[in-house]
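Supplementary Text 2. Reproducibility record for the structural model of the 168-residue chain.

All settings were left at their defaults, and a single model was retained for analysis rather than an ensemble. We include the record here because the model underlies the residue-level annotations in Supplementary Table 4.
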Amino acid sequence: MKKIIKPIALVLLAALIVIQFFKPERNLSSIQGASANDISKLYPVPQEVASILKTSCYDCHSNNTHYPWYSNFQPVAWWLADHVKEGKKEINFSEFASYRIGKQYKKLEEIYSEVEEGEMPHEAYTLIHGDAKLSPSQKEKLMSWASEIRDSIKAHNPADSLQRPKKK
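Retained model, structure tokens:
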């Protein structure tokens, strides 16, 4: 039995070492500060809400991720890269102004419901980033902000522009 375990352990160790040389691309924009399409360029973002977004949302939902020390090791870096990719696919605050108006409206609805239901920030993220966990007052501020912007979009746009385009 020992004759089998030792070679397997050596192969696994060698594989672990080799995968360290295959690193995913990092989510780091070359733009300092908010991009031209950042949500803050289109809608007012109070300082307290901006702070909440930066602490609890932007690592996965913007073009600039703050990477922790353990992101330098595989396979953790791959897992983080995939998580950020999926997060940005759902909503990217750095590109929010480039969304069509109906998508903006829908994403603001989703922010409200995800925060209200405690789905965001993601539990896996808050386990490691304790400061990202939202207090009840932070949840209320974020939900109120999303609701206000969503309502302003609805007030200034015809209802049909808020619907998903129909596929032909």
